[in-house]
Amino acid sequence: MKLFVKKGKLQDIKSQAVILALFQDQKELTGTSLVIDQRSSGLITELINNGDFTAKPSQIAVVYTHGVIPAQRIALVGLGKKSEINLEKIRAAFSKVMQHLRSMNIKETATSIELNILPGKTDKNVQAMVEGALLGLYQYTPYKTVGREDIKEMEQFTIVAGEEEYSIIESAVKIAQIITGGVYFARDLISAPSNEMTPSIMAQKAEGIARRKNVTCQVLDRAKMKKMGMNALLGVAAGSNEEPRFIVLEYSGSSKSKAPVVLVGKGLTFDSGGISIKPAEKMDEMKSDMSGGAAVMATIMVAADLKLPLNIIGLIPATENMPSGSAYKPGDILKSYSGKTIEIINTDAEGRLILADALHYASKYKPAAIIDVATLTGACVIALGDDVIGMLGTDDNLKEKITKAAQDTGEFVWELPLWENYYELIKSDIADYKNSGGRVAGTITAAAFLSKFIGDYPWVHLDIAGPAWSSKDKSYVPKGASGVAVRLLTEYLRNCTSK
């Protein structure tokens, strides 16, 4: 969909539909809504007075103008009570109204944003509005052939701005387009079937990102990893015919002397569980086990397009986890890249193994911070549900910054403890550690395991097992891949650049 920022007044714009956002508890119409109501002989007032539109959160009503203004329709969308407004409600409202208009086969629409939605935050208002509109319209359709002509698409979205706020709105729209473009990229990678998104193909996608200025990509193959001693990653890869890849993306937006932020993303392009095989139900969704890797790749892409003045490293260990005669087995011991040994208790606890090698590799950069993102444990879904990211780490300042970014983006995190007594659960009798501490505190013991491979650098682990894949439509996250953590990581990185 094409986005335009146009100087003028919404009531003068010719469009298939103009969108007006209203508060549930506002006593009278103001601004653009008032002008359009007056010009349309009270169409909006009539709807409100008759109780057909109360402006509850994401409520929608569409009326025809019959030529009294240039737009063919007025689409009203509710923001809920003004005292309760936040960026998430703006995203949800514009997602729902855009989806509704698309369902009517409307191809283009226009809106303006009233400066008093969140006073003093015009840029954030606009960014949230555009994010909601674009993310809610996402569809994954490359494999649809039957009835393809029936797929509806919104083609154009115009945001009308006055002279004074035009530059602020134009800048916010550009930023939102870049960020949502990254989320689209991640969703596309995750949504692709595993036969079309192998570790090698994932590496090719990373090489495509490196065509941008100041971005480089290095891909390590099995032979290089074996020579380096990445045996934890290679152990997981042993059961698959697909060649593993270790992807290194580097974005250089600052001087070489500035310590980078290292982002590590789990890249399991398909996870059968290996010898400890998963149940058949929902195993098809295990193509999404590379959601962390996709988020890291997309974040590097967004950072480069935003020209952030930072150095950022993206590390993505990519492989499949499959059962075969060559697969690693419960009871095996693997010597990791760090030299530490790992007893395999459960081959379905594979994500922490490939991350162990990647996290130790991260230390070579002497990073300012390490953040890993992974669909790591089903236990996190049990603990926090489908909408919240589990957060654990060793640095309070880093956790605080990520929490702030989470509040602004609506990609919420909740901290779980990483106390000393949990480490007892990952001690092995015959190796340094074991890869599973059992069902008790499963998310925490997985993070405790990872912490053994990070050195002394500030580190946070984000378990996205819940929100990475949605089994139903949620406001601006259509059913399927969410692309979660792209906006969260981007906001964190943007905040790192503002002093």
Question: What would you say this structure looks like, in words?
Answer:
- This protein is an alpha/beta fold and 499 residues long.
- Helix content is 34%, strand content 20%.
- The model has no long low-confidence stretch (mean pLDDT 96).
- How much helix is in the residues? 25-40%
Strand content: 15-25%
Number of helices: 14
Backbone shape: elongated
What is the count of distinct domains?
2
Quick recap:
With 499 residues, the protein is of the alpha/beta class. The chain is built from 14 helices and 20 strands.
Ordered list of secondary-structure elements with their pairings:
Elements: E1 2-7, E2 18-22, H1 31-39, H2 43-49, E3 60-64, E4 73-78, H3 87-103, E5 108-112, H4 122-136, E6 156-161, H5 166-191, H6 199-209, E7 215-220, H7 222-228, H8 231-237, E8 245-252, E9 261-265, E10 267-271, H9 291-306, E11 311-321, E12 333-335, E13 341-343, H10 351-362, E14 369-374, H11 378-384, E15 389-393, H12 396-409, E16 413-415, E17 433-434, H13 442-451, E18 459-463, E19 469-470, E20 480-481, H14 486-497
Parallel strand pairs: 1-6, 2-4, 2-5, 5-6, 9-11, 9-14, 10-11, 13-17, 14-18, 15-16
Antiparallel strand pairs: 3-4, 7-8, 8-11, 12-13, 15-18, 19-20
Helix pairs in contact: 3-4, 4-5, 5-9, 8-10, 9-14, 10-13, 12-14
